[in-house]
């Protein structure tokens, strides 16, 4: 027999005094993930194991606080870890297109950058000073003086030899010139023309001899000039090394790193080889941008690009990347236009979140990663190869063909935590072979938690956390109790609390607003109720329009006199954030035939597969109960009246069965009572979803027409623990104006709807006389007999027709 539920059974009230709650109590511990013991254990395991493949996937529904909880947990976990090293990029003096990555002690990257800047600035000043000193000038002059004396002596000997052969040597900008002499004086043109052929021949031979001596002398002079240049260059190198040695050794001792030592040595050698950049005392012309830019470009190779600076960290880094594009993950290569050409160098390398999280933890939303081009592939490659490769996205697609740099990859040691829903985890697990190798630990976040004394206190503390962090008014005991009840409603379980903290926090924020408008210092239970009601009111316009159409009779829903073959089923509509229940008229028509139960929704292609399955189960149930010895011979039609969209789910299968029984037995069903629940082939009523919304939807329709005390809803017994009805519905139940009945079998349900006993099967196989089951059984037998008699008569007609046809054919054929 159906059980009528009490007001205490349809809503589990939270007693404020049982909370032991103080509105100013301390916050919950940061390492606690409220109600997520399973996920917490998985997180600790995944973070504790050092293998590179044990990254984590935090799975759960959106809004359950995964991101906040994980970030808080990781920050606490990171406090006890070592601060990872800094990373810098510097110029590669052997291959400028492959910048070198330097690993420095934590917090020293920026210092090294400043030290290098000071080194170059001081080198410029000291080198200029050294080259401008009197001591340098003397050493340089001493080197040139000896050679210059040799050159003068050589020029003198040459001149004497030329005079002896009748020529004078004359130096000009064009080089050495030979001037012929006659009688010790330069010969004029007329004098040269007056010479005899023999004299001219002799002068030519003398010129060639002198020219040969000059060529040999000039070669010797060039050798001396080269020797001077070599000695001066050697002197310059000694001067530059003298200026740099002390400073370079000081930095080498300060940083004590092989990479830094090698880099400082390379810089020293490059500065020695590029003395001209440092020795000039003239500043570039301020009106000549080309000169200024050229000097800046030349000196840029001595800069240090700090890629990762961990100077402010107190432990391992925790990075939450909210926009995981390709460049935001692995870094980018910026470019600049230089005199019409696009170029890049090591100073334009920018880090990605993998660089910043190196040595710590990186949190990503998997749906954001999958939406961005190449982000997923680059993340997997970085984790697989344990290094971060910075490359240009456009070049990877082949959009650009300009020459670019290829920075040295940075070794990667990071734990990646992906946050997403379960269906994405299963999809990646099935379709991506590398996923399981890289993300071996799954942390499952539950959408519900137990509602016990311990959890209630933690829940209250979590609410205080929200209020404290966001500067909201604190909640009094009544407000916390109301939130607990609302949380159980979201969880659809009297013994559970929802972990959908985003929704709970929004209610607290809205309640804070309403408390402020009332000038209250604390948020009270009334403010929570107002916040919930106002939130529903902002979204329920569609619900109100449907209720208005039912009230006007546009959508026909009977709540008055009993009707045979008709029942009020209950369904749930979801439109965006709106989730509400509404009644549907379900009717059944019965006739003789062999078609069985025909689902009109399915025939019209408006029935989903689960709904179709539920209707097919009804055929099995009818056969199980009433057609053990005789075939099931009926033609029945089931339909959701005034339904113009797809019907899905099996929660109306019990209502459809009641409509069939009513139509077969000819017994009317009480239209004041609506029904929900699915049924199996054994006649057992099974649990369904959205039971609170369904009850409230029918209650609101009945209330608009005036409650008489006869109205109510039949639900599965297994759904009783899911009831957390609105306060106005609970009040109506308490006042006897509305009822909720729980049933475990279809017999209990049909008795509740008709007021007639279902009837048990007796020893002879028949049901009790006058019961609903007896009437159904008799009606089915009557239909079967009718079908059988019709079949006999039809077969007789066919035989007679066949005999006449044979006689006609025999007559025609002779």
Description:
The chain is about 50% helix and about 15% strand. It has 29 helices and 29 strands. The strands form nine sheets. The protein has an eight-stranded mixed β-sheet, sandwiched between helices. A five-stranded parallel β-sheet has the order 9-14-17-2-18. Strand 28, helix 27 and strand 29 form a beta-alpha-beta unit. Helix 4 runs antiparallel to helix 7, helix 5 runs antiparallel to helix 7 and helix 20 packs across helix 21. The longest helix has about 60 residues.
For the largest beta-sheet, the strand count, sense and barrel status come to: 8 strands, mixed
Strand order of the largest sheet: 1-29-28-25-21-22-24-23
Shape field: elongated
Count of DSSP H/I helices: 29
- Low-confidence stretches are none
Question: Which terms summarize this structure?
Answer:
814 residues, 29 strands, alpha/beta, 5-stranded parallel β-sheet, 8-stranded mixed β-sheet
Question: Would you kindly provide a brief summary of this structure?
Answer:
The chain has 814 residues and is α/β, with parallel strands linked by helices. The protein is 50% helix and 15% strand.
List the helices and strands and how they pair.
Elements (H helix, E strand, L loop, with lengths): L2 E2 L2 H4 L26 H12 L7 E4 L6 H13 L7 E5 L9 E5 L4 H23 L2 H31 L2 E6 L2 E8 L2 E2 L2 H5 L3 H59 L2 H16 L2 H4 L9 H12 L4 E4 L9 E4 L4 H5 L1 E2 L2 E3 L2 E3 L5 E2 L2 H4 L4 E5 H6 L3 H11 L1 E2 L4 H5 L12 E2 L3 E6 L1 H10 L3 H4 L2 E4 L3 E3 L2 H18 L6 H15 L4 E3 L2 H17 L7 H15 L1 H12 L13 E10 L2 E14 L4 E4 H4 L5 H18 L8 E6 L12 H13 L7 E3 L2 E2 L5 E2 L4 H15 L6 E5 L10 H8 L4 E5 L2 H9 L17 H42 L1
Helix pairs in contact: 4-7, 5-7, 7-8, 19-21, 20-21, 25-28, 25-29
């Amino acid at each position: 027999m159906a059980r009528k539920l009490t007001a205490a059974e349809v809503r589990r009230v939270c007693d404020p005094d049982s909370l032991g709650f103080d509105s100013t109590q301390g916050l919950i511990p940061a390492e606690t993930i409220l109600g997520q013991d399973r996920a917490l254990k998985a997180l600790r395991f995944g973070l504790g194991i050092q293998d590179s493949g044990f990254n984590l996937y935090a799975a759960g529904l959106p809004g359950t606080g995964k991101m906040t909880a994980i970030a808080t947990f990781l920050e606490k976990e990171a406090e006890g870890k070592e601060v990872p090293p800094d990373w810098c990029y510097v110029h590669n003096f052997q291959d400028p297109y492959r910048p070198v990555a330097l690993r420095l002690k934590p917090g020293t990257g920026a210092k090294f950058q400043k030290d290098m800047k000071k080194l170059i600035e001081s080198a410029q000043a000291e080198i200029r000073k050294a080259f401008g000193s009197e001591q340098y000038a003397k050493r340089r002059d001493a080197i040139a003086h000896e050679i210059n004396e040799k050159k003068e002596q050589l020029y003198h000997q040459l001149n004497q030899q030329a005079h002896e052969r009748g020529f004078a040597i004359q130096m000009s900008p064009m080089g050495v010139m030979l001037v012929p002499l006659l009688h010790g004086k330069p010969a004029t043109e007329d004098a040269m023309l007056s010479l005899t052929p023999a004299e001219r021949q002799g002068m030519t031979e003398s010129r060639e001899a002198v020219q040969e001596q000059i060529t040999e002398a000039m070669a010797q002079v060039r050798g001396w000039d080269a020797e001077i240049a070599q000695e001066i260059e050697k002197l310059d190198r000694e001067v530059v090394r003298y200026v740099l040695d002390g400073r370079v050794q000081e930095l080498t001792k300060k940083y004590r790193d092989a990479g830094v030592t090698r880099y400082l040595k390379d810089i020293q050698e490059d500065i020695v080889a590029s003395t001209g950049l440092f020795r000039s005392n003239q500043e570039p012309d301020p009106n000549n941008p080309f000169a200024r830019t050229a000097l800046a470009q030349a000196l840029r190779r001595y800069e240090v690009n700090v890629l990762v600076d961990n100077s402010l960290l107190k432990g391992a880094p925790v990075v939450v990347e909210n926009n995981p594009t390709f460049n935001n993950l692995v870094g980018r290569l910026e470019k600049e236009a230089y005199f019409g050409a696009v170029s890049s160098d090591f100073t334009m390398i920018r880090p990605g979140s993998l660089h910043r999280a190196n040595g710590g933890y990186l949190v990503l939303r998997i749906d954001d990663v999958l939406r961005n081009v190449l982000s997923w592939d680059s993340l997997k490659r970085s984790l697989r190869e344990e290094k971060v490769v910075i490359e240009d996205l456009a070049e990877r697609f082949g959009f650009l063909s300009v020459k670019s740099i290829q920075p040295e990859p940075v070794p990667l040691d990071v734990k990646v935590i992906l946050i997403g829903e379960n269906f994405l985890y299963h999809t990646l697990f099935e379709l991506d072979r590398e996923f399981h190798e890289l993300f071996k630990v799954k942390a499952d976040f539950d959408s519900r938690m137990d509602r016990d004394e311990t959890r209630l206190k933690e829940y209250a503390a979590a609410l205080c956390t929200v209020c404290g962090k966001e500067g909201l008014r604190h909640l009094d005991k009544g407000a916390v109790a109301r939130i607990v009840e609302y949380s159980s409603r979201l969880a659809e379980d009297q013994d559970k609390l929802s972990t959908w903290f985003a929704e709970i926090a929004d209610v607290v924020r809205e309640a804070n607003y309403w408390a402020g408008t009332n000038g209250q210092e604390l948020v009270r239970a009334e403010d929570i109720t107002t916040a919930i009601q106002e939130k529903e009111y902002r979204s329920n316009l569609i619900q109100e329009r449907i209720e208005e159409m039912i009230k006007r009779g546009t959508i026909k829903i009977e709540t008055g006199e009993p009707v045979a073959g008709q029942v009020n089923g209950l369904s749930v509509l979801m439109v965006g954030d709106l989730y509400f229940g509404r009644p549907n008229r379900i009717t059944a028509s019965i006739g003789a035939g062999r078609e069985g139960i025909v689902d009109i929704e399915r025939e019209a292609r408006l029935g989903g597969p689960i709904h179709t399955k539920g209707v097919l189960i009804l055929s099995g149930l009818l056969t199980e109960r009433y057609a053990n010895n005789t075939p099931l011979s009926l033609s029945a039609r089931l339909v959701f009246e005034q339904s113009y969209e797809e019907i899905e789910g099996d929660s109306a299968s019990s209502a459809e069965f009641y409509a069939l029984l009513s139509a077969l037995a000819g017994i009317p069903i009480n239209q004041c009572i609506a029904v929900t629940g699915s049924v199996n082939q054994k006649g057992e009523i099974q649990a369904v979803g959205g039971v609170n919304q369904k009850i409230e939807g029918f209650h609101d329709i009945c209330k608009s027409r005036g409650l008489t005390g006869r109205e109510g809803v039949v639900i599965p017994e297994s759904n009783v623990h899911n009831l957390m009805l609105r306060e106005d519905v609970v009040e109506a139940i308490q006042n006897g104006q509305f009822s909720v009945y729980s049933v475990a079998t279809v017999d209990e349900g049909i008795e509740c709807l008709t007021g007639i006993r279902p009837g048990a099967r007796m020893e002879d196989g028949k049901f009790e006389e006058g019961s609903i089951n007896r009437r159904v059984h008799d009606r089915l037998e009557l239909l079967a007999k009718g079908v059988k008699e019709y079949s006999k008569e039809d077969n007789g007609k066919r035989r007679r027709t066949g005999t006449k046809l044979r006689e006609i054919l025999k007559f025609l054929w002779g």
